[in-house]
Amino acid sequence: MMNRQLELREHIANLIEHHSRQSNGSHPTSIPSLFLFRQNKMTVPTHGVHDRSICFVFQGQKEVMLAQELYRYESAEYIAASVDLPVISQVVEASPEAPYLALKLKFTPEQILEVIQESKIPTHSQEHAKRGLFVGKMEEPLMDAVKRLMQLLDHPEEIPLLAPLITKEILFRIMQGKYGMALEQIVKDGGGAYRIIDAIEHIKQNFEKPLRIDDLAEIANMSVPSLYRHFKDVTAMSPIQFQKHLRLQAARSLLLTEPTEAAEAAFRVGYESPSQFSREYTRMFGLSPIQDIKRLRALNA
């Protein structure tokens, strides 16, 4: 069985190399929910939002930091996010001879619900919400399904029919495992995680506006203490910390892509005090806004 898994891993790695044209970076595919990743060297820590998706690794190693929690995953492992989460990520093992090779598959709550309804997977009662990020190992049936999804890239006429079916199979394989509850909870009506999704979406869409916890609790249809508890269970941070991450990431993007002063960027993402913005920016990114953007532009030159 180990030989079979090794063959599958090498086969999928070769498919990623082929369809990424051995070019570093992120590569969209003819399957809208599927993206390929290749990197032939270690990368610097990158701040961003890990969207609802599963990232499967077939060569190399990567680390993701969620709040103060470190997640490390490597070949034959995957990391899954059941909700959108602000993280810091870094490829930590890659070389020209053995590049980091991975693929990301996005999914929707509707697909999770379909899998539960069609497969009759037993659901679980959950007193506490599960963390929205987890790392798992790929067993042979899961890896085989991923291989078949990748093979569709060579048969585009089959994608409309088969890609949705194989995607559901991949979700089914994961939900059969010990982390199935982390995916199940996002569609379980009445559960804490299910209601927290609305709160997360509200913060994402309105991060530049003042955050009123009472309003957020009303959106999630729960008490303020319950909101804080479930929000931290899922995201590893408080609503205010979540908003702060989104604001600072948005400000960094503005400073990097537009001719914007730090004070203007601060106001545009919701800060009233430029000095507070500068302090929090420096705390998160390790340098002042001016120094950080100068460094990033030098790296990208």
TrEMBL record:
Keywords: Transcription, Transcription regulation. SMART domains: HTH_ARAC. It comes from the Bacteria. The keyword Repeat does not apply. The keyword Glycoprotein does not apply. Residues 197-295 form the HTH araC/xylS-type domain. PANTHER family: ARAC-FAMILY TRANSCRIPTIONAL REGULATOR, TRANSCRIPTIONAL REGULATORY PROTEIN. This is Helix-turn-helix domain-containing protein.
